[in-house]
Write a structure and sequence with these properties.
This protein is an alpha/beta fold. The protein has 11 helices and 8 strands. Strands 3-2-1-4-7-6-8-5 form an 8-stranded mixed sheet, sandwiched between helices.
Length: 307
């Protein structure tokens, strides 16, 4: 049982789940959450305009629902608003399409906070059974079965925990629409906040993005990196990354015997890196000019997800 020395009364954890038209995944995610061995939590669902019956599913679980308009959804500010609403010492963030694998995932995620080793933690993500070969390979690199996560992945929110006091010291940023977890983790490490990757806390989570969705995702990652890692970025560097990812894709698809994946790789990776480059250019311009309007990134990604 997680205990804290401040004499807190009531649930020790607030689980925050963000939803929008998640009917196809939310029941599985919440079933997994409410099957955990650790149950000393309250649930806060933040919904940004679901129209598909998501809230009918959510309402069958004990929870508080915070409703916002779709145009209000900017990940960093929304998380700040939700966490500020919580009254618990610990906050857990779970995506609406993330399914805990096993009943101990939440308990294991919280153990580094309980022991005092860390102020924040994040889980290992395993791809869904239908995940494409390149998605599986990317997840294997990002979320190893043992040891630490790679240095370029300081924090990942699909299932993550943090002390609320650490969030009070460092809220999520609002410079760009996406990569709020990467930015928080990068800044936290610089400030000496300890974050632990917990490979024993496993969840199922992955996406087989369409090319349009992939463009939107990578565009906002590029825009965000202009604020997170403000170092020079060039088209030549983009070409180098494209060559490297094509080589990795070829190796992964050959190993899996996935000929169709090999044929699709050049076009997909071209979109992947071009979108990042375009987003990075926008972010650099915004950072240089002091432009605070993050709505372009919001529009790029949401238009492609909701088309």
């Amino acid at each position: 049982m997680l205990t804290l020395a401040d004499g807190h009364v009531g649930p020790l954890v607030t689980v925050i789940v963000r939803t929008k038209n998640s009917r196809d995944t939310i029941a599985q995610a919440l079933n997994g959450l409410f099957s955990q061995t650790f149950q000393d939590f309250e649930l806060l669902v933040v919904d940004s305009g679901s129209t598909d019956g998501t809230l009918d599913v959510v309402s069958s679980y004990p929870c508080e629902i915070l409703r916002i308009e779709a145009h209000e959804y900017y990940p960093g500010p929304v998380l700040n608003r939700a966490i500020a609403r919580s009254a618990t010492p610990v906050v857990v963030l779970q995506n609406s399409d993330v399914v805990p694998l096993g009943v101990h995932a939440l308990e294991r995620l919280l153990e580094p906070l309980r022991s005092g080793r860390a102020q924040a933690s994040f889980a290992r993500q395993r791809p869904r059974p239908e995940a494409h070969t390149w998605v599986r390979a990317d997840y294997e690199r990002a979320f190893p079965a043992q040891g630490p996560a790679p240095a370029w992945l300081p924090y990942s929110l699909p299932l993550a925990a943090m002390l609320k006091s650490s969030w009070l010291d460092q809220p999520f940023y609002d410079d760009a629409w996406g990569s709020e977890d990467t930015e928080w983790g990068t800044r936290a490490r610089e400030r000496g906040i300890r974050i632990e990757y917990v490979p024993e806390a496993e969840v199922m989570h992955s996406h087989n993005y369409t090319l349009a969705q992939l463009y939107g995702r990578r565009f906002i990652e590029g825009e965000a990196d202009a604020f997170i890692v403000p170092r020079p970025h060039s088209a030549l560097a983009t070409l180098g990354r494209l060559a490297g990812s094509l080589k990795s894709d070829l190796e992964a698809h050959l190993k899996a015997g996935d000929l169709r994946g090999i044929l699709a790789s050049p076009g997909r990776r071209a979109v992947y890196h071009w979108a990042y480059h375009k987003g990075r250019r926008l972010g650099e311009r915004r950072a240089r000019t002091g432009d605070r309007d993050a709505s372009t990134g919001q529009k790029v990604v949401l238009d492609r997800y909701e088309a």
